[in-house]
Fold:
Amino acid sequence: MITGACHCGAVSYQFDHTPSKTTSCNCSVCRRLGALWIYAKIPKITINGATDSYAWGDKSLAFHRCKVCGCTTHWENLQPEGPDSYMAVNLRLADPAVVATIPVRHFDGADSWTFLD
Ligand SMILES: [Zn+2]
Structure:
């Protein structure tokens, strides 16, 4: 179980999975957000609190942020295909001691759609 919260504490998450990696993506949105994503199937993730969201392009994903402090909290799949669909939370919102234990992999979401390492 990994927990995280935005700066003001209005939004928090529970991530009921042990990630083998966290993903740093260089696509046009992720490189600006600076998020580290950890992924799990939708039933493994609980989000508490009110968020605003942003979707672009083909609007397959919505990126969520705290309405109060603006921290990026998670993304959701806008066309989920049942409980086997994935979503992700921003590991940056977890305890730094937890973040330090999870290897970062760099994903080339801007171009080749493969991991660069
Ligand atoms: Zn907040």
User: Anything to note?
Assistant: The domain at 2-107 is CATH 2.170.150.70 (Metal Binding Protein, Guanine Nucleotide Exchange Factor; Chain A).
